[in-house]
Design a protein that fits this description.
Helices cover 36% and strands 18% of the residues. The protein is built from 14 helices and 19 strands. Bound molecules: glycine and manganese (II) ion (2 copies).
């Protein structure tokens, strides 16, 4: 087994917290992700839908979870449907979960073979008025491709038109924002693997390397240390490539004198880490690069202190926008006078700093969240200010993952080199 599985108590707890928030007389249905086709006989690699994972710990395709917390027979209140152990499937694809294994992972005691789903569902729905469906309600995400939860929901809506339909997503967004101790330990492990990989790169990066070669090095260290791989497509961006925020082509040569922006995070046990560092390709920052880097680092350090109970994403963003505006003035990018004359607030800043400073992190790198939620102990968020001065070929972002606690913010990446002197010294030491 590649990673240490969380205990089934975590998933039992998650289902209970979710079920407690359903209206009386309800069922909730959750599906695994599809395995998406590419072309001919190829498929993308399976990646579990994060909500069904959160509720069951089951990392297998075609799994279905149905919760009916008020069912008159208590043994029917949680039911899991899994693929059968067809010997032909085992020959081609390897082991699938047995009923006993699925039970020991999830803590669900009633587990059926998938081919019983339609008939059992009909029996379950007879006893309820409301059906909760799990549509993807992540804000600002749109796709032409319908996911399995939506497709199956529409089928059920057609078959059972006299039931009422409800939304699981708002409940799950609230629950998933606050991590348990066990989840935090897994995220820490993902951060540790990211650290190993970054330290390796400090020794490996040299002028004339290709960006994709750096990507290969970082992925190697991730996988070698038990990570599934990257939690998202890594950004390996030399010079002005770093000014394209989602640059993932990673196909250019790194030049002597350039900066290299690395936005990289290992995924471990289904949980993401997310780190950005900016290093000089030749191991030494120029005076101007150092000036810009330290300006961002100063904002980063101040912003990290703001991940305190009761603060909000909006509060942190406003605070950082003001700091970044001052930093831009000090760096000579615009003047106080220019600010007074700008058409709208932060218009000038947007040329050099155009993204937000934080997002929740967890089973997804941009984890599900409520934008207006106040910070609570157990939330894990990134802190990631940056500056992008395309005309100077400079793109800098510094990003760590921060845990909110009752005693203040805890930087889960505090051990990862970040100071100019530390980075230069490690890049110039041979091990
Ligand atoms: N790696 C994506 C982000 O920093 O949000
Ligand atoms: Mn991030
Ligand atoms: Mn990132």
């Amino acid at each position: 087994m590649k990673y240490h599985h969380p205990s089934k108590e975590l998933f039992i707890r998650n289902r209970k917290l979710f079920s407690d928030q359903l209206k009386p007389s309800s069922a909730a249905i959750f599906h695994s992700s599809d395995i998406y086709p590419i072309h001919a006989d190829r498929f993308h690699k399976f990646q579990q839908q994060s909500d069904i994972y959160y509720l069951t710990g089951i990392d297998q395709e075609e799994t279905i979870l149905v919760l009916t917390p008020d069912h008159p027979d208590p043994s029917f209140r949680e039911i899991l449907f899994i693929r059968s152990l067809d010997p032909q499937v085992v020959i081609w694809e390897g082991e699938k979960l047995s009923i006993e294994k699925a039970e020991s992972i999830s803590g669900v005691s009633k587990i059926y073979n998938l081919n019983n789903y339609e008939i059992v569902l009909k029996e379950l729905l007879y006893y309820v008025t409301n059906i909760y469906f799990n549509f993807n309600e992540y804000a600002k995400f749109f796709s032409d491709i319908e996911d399995r939860n939506s497709r199956k929901a529409r089928e059920v809506m057609n078959k059972y038109p006299t039931h009422s339909f409800e939304r699981s997503a708002p409940i799950l967004h609230q629950l998933r924002m606050v991590k348990t101790r066990e989840e935090i330990e897994i995220i820490k492990k993902a951060c540790e693997i990211t650290e190993k990989s970054f330290r390796h790169l400090l020794n490996a990066v040299k002028p004339e390397m290709m960006e994709y070669q750096v990507e290969a090095e970082l992925e190697y260290v991730f996988k070698y240390n038990g990570a599934t791989g990257s939690a998202y497509e890594p950004i390996v961006a030399g010079g002005e490539n770093a000014c394209s925020l989602h640059y993932i082509k990673n196909d250019k040569e790194l030049k002597d004198g350039q900066l290299l922006l690395l936005d990289m995070g290992a995924e471990y046990g289904n949980y993401a880490s997310d780190m950005s560092r900016t290093i000089p390709v030749n191991g030494r920052f120029t005076k101007r690069q150092k000036e810009c880097y330290n300006a961002v680092l100063d904002v980063f350090k101040k912003a990290c202190q703001k991940f305190t109970i009761g603060n909000t994403l909006k509060g942190i963003n406003e605070y950082v926008n003001d700091l970044m505006q001052e930093a831009c003035i000090k760096l000579g990018l615009f003047s106080e006078e220019d600010l007074k004359n700008q058409e709208e607030d932060y218009k000038l800043l947007q040329k050099y700093y155009m993204h937000k400073v934080s997002h929740h992190i967890g089973l997804n790198v941009h984890d599900v969240f409520d934008p207006n939620a106040k910070f609570e102990a157990g939330m894990v968020l990134t802190c990631e200010p940056g500056i992008y001065i395309k005309e100077e070929g400079i793109g800098i972002r510094i990003e760590n993952d921060i845990l909110v606690t009752l005693d203040g913010p805890v930087d889960l990446m505090a051990n990862i080199p970040i100071e100019v002197e530390e980075i230069e010294s490690l890049m110039n030491s041979s091990i």
